[in-house]
């Protein structure tokens, strides 16, 4: 049996390839053979770590979420004022750059499939709940420091911002002429800027 460090590395490699295939081919068209080819391993190796395709895709969604949070850990742990952190969150989630665009496509596939799959609905609920809590904590910090003047519930404010990012990003990914990355940036940052001057809602 491979050493634990080798196993962890190979497993991460397989999950990264799974996310890549989901983003390029779609969830329903994903084949284990395509994942194995991209990862440079055999199909048997993929099944060694993940017995079923569902285990593989569920783990890939979780892997994508963990990487997404890890890439933004520096923002969450920053000593910058809350409003500055929210602006950094906006910038970091704009669908530009191969890594971020791929992650957005993976999330889009999860959302579409979750409409029909209770199991994926549970995954989405957990991931979204964790992400909502993270964003809400920044709003809460801002209200406590006086940086954010809106008296609204931090969770409601987080829902506003998260849903804005999600909805506009999907339009950008869909190639909307009216919703470019620059328009998305301007729209989201205007929302953040209003938090320091007036109530939202």
TrEMBL record:
Keywords: DNA-binding, Repressor, Transcription, Transcription regulation
InterPro entries registered for this protein in UniProt: BetI_C, Homeodomain-like_sf, HTH-type_TetR-like_transc_reg, HTH_TetR, Tet_transcr_reg_TetR-rel_C_sf
Domain HTH tetR-type: 8-68
Keyword Protein biosynthesis: no
SUPFAM superfamilies according to UniProt: Homeodomain-like, Tetracyclin repressor-like, C-terminal domain
Highest taxon above the source species: Bacteria
UniProt DNA-binding residue ranges: 31-50
Protein name, entry field: TetR/AcrR family transcriptional regulator
Gene3D superfamilies: Tetracycline Repressor, domain 2
rRNA-binding is among the record's keywords: no
């Amino acid at each position: 049996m491979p050493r634990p460090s080798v196993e962890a590395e190979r497993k991460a490699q397989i999950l990264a390839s799974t996310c890549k295939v989901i983003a390029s081919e779609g969830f329903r068209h994903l084949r284990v053979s395509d994942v194995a080819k991209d990862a440079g391993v055999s199909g048997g190796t993929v099944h060694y770590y993940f017995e079923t395709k569902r285990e593989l895709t569920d783990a890939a969604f979780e892997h994508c979420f963990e990487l997404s949070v890890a890439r933004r850990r520096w923002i969450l742990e920053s000593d910058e004022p809350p409003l500055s952190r929210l602006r950094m969150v906006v910038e970091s989630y704009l669908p530009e750059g191969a890594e971020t665009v791929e992650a957005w496509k993976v999330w889009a596939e999860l959302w579409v499939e979750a409409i029909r799959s209770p199991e994926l609905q549970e995954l989405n609920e957990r991931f979204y709940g964790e992400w909502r809590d993270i964003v809400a904590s920044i709003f809460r910090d801002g209200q406590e420091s006086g940086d954010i003047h809106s008296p609204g519930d931090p969770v409601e404010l987080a829902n506003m911002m998260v849903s804005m990012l999600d909805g506009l990003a999907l339009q950008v990914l869909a190639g909307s002429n009216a919703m470019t990355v620059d328009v998305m940036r301007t729209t989201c940052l205007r929302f953040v800027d209003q938090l320091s001057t007036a109530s939202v809602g």
